[in-house]
Amino acid sequence: MIALACDHGGFAYMRELKLHLDGRDVAYEDFGTHSGDSCDYPEFAERAARAVASGVCSAGILICGTGIGMSIAANKLSGIRAALCSDCFSAEMTRRHNDANILALGARVIGVGLMLKIVDVFLDTGFDGGRHLKRVEMIRELERITNCQDTCRTPTGTAARPE
Ligand code: RB5
Q1: What is the Cα–Cα distance from 102 to 12, expressed in whole angstroms?
Q2: What is the pLDDT of residues 5-59, one digit of tens each?
Q3: Is the C or the N end of the chain the one with fewer CB within 10 Å?
Q4: From the alpha carbon of 10, which atom of ligand 1 is closest?
């Protein structure tokens, strides 16, 4: 199951994306927005990213005007590796090397045809593992330390270093 979300900047492209996924028989859940009215992209990025982080969805695709806001917001959630891609090479490499679990796209940056090719590459490419697994584990460790700094304070206010 793929988690989808967009803001008003990505709404028209999201309709094209859903038609494409229907044609491929790819199941998805659409977390909105559901109109072209102006809205706040972090709200929709959060909804889709939570579904991916919790394991309800195996991956996500987010679309806003540039893809930047969506990717920044999604990457605030632990376990999310959102990659903003405007070309097929980046989409392939972020799956193979970063095990990216969310693809962010900019509707004001690329055309619909390129967007759909990028989506296909992202969905059809697996993680290489090997030496890249260690690096993804290092990202997970950074998340663990950051989460601990947010919640685990020593009496002096210095963040406790996790063991
Ligand atoms: C909305 O105007 C625009 O800011 C948004 O779609 C996105 O590009 C933000 O990063």
Answers
A1: 19
A2: 999 999 999 999 999 999 999 999 999 999 999 999 999 999 999 999 999 999 9
A3: C
A4: 6
Centre of ligand 1 to C-alpha 84, Å, is: 13
83 CA to centre of ligand 1 in angstroms? 16
- The domain defined by 2-127 folds into Ribose 5-phosphate Isomerase B; Chain: A, (3.40.1400)
Tokens of 146: 């950051």
- What is the number of helices (H) and of strands (E) in the chain? 6, 5
Q: Which of 14, 70, 86 to mutate to test the pocket of ligand 1 (most atoms within 8 A of CB)?
A: 70
Torsion angle, alpha carbons of 89, 95, 98, 100, to 10: 120
Å from CA of 9 to ligand 1 middle: 6
Question: Ligand 1: which of 14, 41, 72, 76 to mutate, most ligand atoms within 8 Å of CB?
Answer: 41
Residue 149: its pLDDT value, please?
Answer: 76
pTM of the entire predicted model: 0.92
Distance from C-alpha of 117 to C-alpha of 91, rounded to nearest angstrom? 10
Q: What pLDDT, in 10s, does the model give residues 52-95?
A: 999 999 999 999 999 999 999 999 999 999 999 999 999 999 99
pLDDT at 109: 98
